[in-house]
Design goal:
By secondary structure, the chain is mainly beta. It has no helices and 21 strands. Strands 6, 7, 8, 9 and 10 form a five-stranded antiparallel β-sheet that branches. Strands 1-21-20-19 form a four-stranded antiparallel β-sheet, with no helix packed on it.
């Protein structure tokens, strides 16, 4: 997995779908905009203390309990929630929970709540170096139900649906996007398909880093992966759905076969798509030498091909999420600290792109 992984990003959904974010669809059409980070950031998600849960790793050279992929949302009681993938724990990757009464608190309170991969639900079936994997949470609300999508990682299947021996090449197994639901945004229950699995779709390749957006009456799932069983054939993929459960087949939203953007081909990840002023904007981490997040502008939400889109800017953040408070103020998150992984917030504004 990449050094800087995806943070799930809550983007411009309709107010009916997700009351804790704003809808940009009503803005005037055909106005080209540029996102700008407005001021300094503040810490919200520090490294959690997992010792009380017996999940603290032994001392080593790398940062333990690294906060990484994350999502931020507000429940009906006004409380803000941060769920994040935490890496380098004693058992691998888990999800951890922080909360706060306002977005501007620093730091947020780690509640001690965690979610681990569940093999009985078909998650993390082929482990990497004996570690369990669960990652990239992303929460949306539709009607009265909260939906938490997340990376359940290995399915134990190859691209043709054949079962794999756990001892075979880890990269051969198709990865998956899974789902939990909640009526209050606090107590989560895994979705189960006819086979008892939590997955809602599989592949291509290392499917991960999902961003779920409603555009009109259709839900779009943007995520990272690779096709043709070739890790270097990495791209940003998209599927559509009318109910958040059943998803179309995948198609390529952006593919960079010549590695024109990004340090390595497999570093095309952390997709985020927002609609602003008649255009669709794709945020994509990484850039050359992991420089940050590249932002592209397109007239088609299904097509961000490099020969058809404009490169708008490069933001100095990694795996961001955009959040909007009750007043309509926007914020952008970042997992890159000066010397370690931590989750921070800063204000965000959009200006006309002259």
């Amino acid at each position: 997995m990449m050094q800087f992984a995806k943070a799930a990003l809550i983007v411009w959904l309709s107010a009916a779908a997700c009351p804790f974010v704003s809808c940009a669809a009503e803005e005037s059409a055909n106005v080209k905009l540029r996102p700008i980070i407005d001021g300094t950031s503040w810490l919200i998600g520090p490294e959690p203390n997992l010792a009380p849960l017996d999940l603290q790793p032994a001392p080593g050279d790398t940062q333990p309990n690294q906060p990484n992929d994350h999502c931020i949302f507000q429940t009906n009681d006004g409380v803000w929630h941060l769920w994040a993938c935490v890496r380098q724990t004693k058992i691998g990757r888990i999800l951890c929970h922080w909360e706060a009464k306002s977005l501007t608190e620093s730091p947020w309170k780690f509640t001690g709540e965690i979610i681990r991969a569940d093999k009985s639900a078909g998650e993390s079936l082929v482990e990497w170096r004996g570690q369990e994997f669960i990652q990239s949470p992303f929460v949306v609300k539709d009607k009265r139900m909260y939906y938490m999508f997340y990376g359940g990682y290995d399915t134990g299947l190859d691209p043709n649906g054949r079962k794999l021996d756990a001892g075979l090449d880890y990269n051969t197994a198709e990865k998956q996007i899974c789902l939990m639901t909640s009526s209050d945004g606090r107590k989560w229950t895994r979705h189960r398909d006819k086979d008892g699995y939590s997955r809602v779709f599989v592949g291509p390749g290392a499917a991960r880093d999902e961003c779920i957006v409603r555009l009109g009456d259709t839900w779009y799932a943007y995520y990272a992966g690779h096709h043709n069983c070739d890790r270097d054939a990495a791209g940003i993929y998209v599927r559509t759905s009318s109910d958040l459960i059943h998803w179309s087949d995948w198609r390529i939203a952006q593919y960079d076969p010549n590695c024109l953007i990004g340090g390595h081909k497999w570093q095309a990840e952390s997709p985020v798509v927002v609609y602003r002023g008649g255009y669709y904007y794709l945020f994509r981490t990484h850039g050359p030498d992991r420089s940050g997040t590249w932002v592209f502008r397109s007239t088609n939400p299904l097509d961000f091909s490099l020969n058809k889109v404009e490169l708008v800017t490069i933001l100095d953040v990694i795996a961001p999420e955009i959040v909007i408070d009750e007043t309509g103020r926007e914020y952008i998150s970042n997992i890159r600290g000066e010397t370690d992984y931590r989750i921070s917030l800063a204000k965000l504004r959009w200006e006309k792109d002259e």
